[in-house]
Design goal:
The protein is mainly α. The chain contains four helices and no strands.
Amino acid sequence: LWAGVYPLLLALMVGATWVDRIYARSVGSALPDSALAVALQRVSDGLLLLSVVVILAGVLSAWLLQGVARALVIASLAVFCLEFLLPVLAAALPGGAIYFAMLGPGLRIGIMLAALGLSLLACRRVLT
């Protein structure tokens, strides 16, 4: 069961991040600055809560699986956690904040898609 739940939660996280990126620009022009800050904070808190659920499901899935499937889930979790290191890495690099502003959304989606791909490979390995 958890072999299928973890990829589904990761797919939900990818979709939520994608929708967040799409609507962040359109909402920014429609709301005053104070309401925008509150709205963005609530969305950010929701995505962090969903991230915790995804990580817990991944850890449980890795604990329950064996062999190659476990290694793939652990690799997926490691890739997923890279998303949280992006702001730190951007701050450490000279001019990183500028590059992160330009490439950050694409990197976030790319990292989550890579994690999703690894988790789907693990799911496939379990089912075969």
